[in-house]
Please model this.
Amino acid sequence: MLEEPYRWIEAVRNRREYLEEQLSSGSPVVALPYQDGILMATVGGGTSKLYEVYDQIAFGGLGHPTDLEKLRTAVLELAHVEGFNRSPADVNLQRLIKFGIAPVMKQAFEEILHAPFISKLLFVELTHPSGQPLFVKLDYDGLFEENGKFGILAPTEEIEKKMIAYLRSQEETRTLSLKPVLQIALRTWAVSLHPVPPEGAEDVLPVSSEIDRLLKEKLDHFTPEIALLDKTIPGTSKFKALLQDEIQPRIREWLR
Model:
């Protein structure tokens, strides 16, 4: 097959369609800056999807749980080898992505005789030494995209566009406290539940009451997961996963 370029291209195209279908029902991940750092949010069935990588680096993912665990292990090893060989201050997201995990995912995608990673990842970092947020989305084929404002990881391109449109209609989150940012993040996630209109029809964003209704229905059966990179936490590690006892009171205050 490798001696026949057309067959290789066709195989890659089929692989891409297969992965898009496998990922199409995944739960999105939203990452926003706030006054104390970065908030990450998703909703799921109990299996954790938000992970710490290194002191000021974390990631969330959607896809097959086994592949997410393989990638989590790989990026953890990369970070700690980097920290041991150089120094903890030299462990940064750009090096981990460009020289580490992105080439691994690209190779897995293009080796058509082996299984690819059924996963998309969203990395976040409080950059050293400025503490500014950095968001990097990494696709299953190794392509990555940096953003300094927010991070959206959605199962399809149509859902991602809708979530970004909603987020841009909200106020800037960088100076807000945890509570309003949590509200914006979960509402942005809930926009993914709004049906995609038929081809050719205008896609109108749902109003707040409709978004809250969709979110409330989902939270009757699934659990929100929230993690922070909090600059106010003493020590080098800034990652904190919020407990449900810390999340639920904040949600009940506005989602009735």
In short: Strands lie at 29-34, 37-44, 50-54, 57-63, 119-126, 133-138, 144-147, 151-153, 223-230, 239-241. The radius of gyration is 19 Å. The helical segments are 5-23, 65-85, 93-110, 157-168, 178-191, 208-219, 244-252. Residues 65-85 form the longest helix (21 residues).
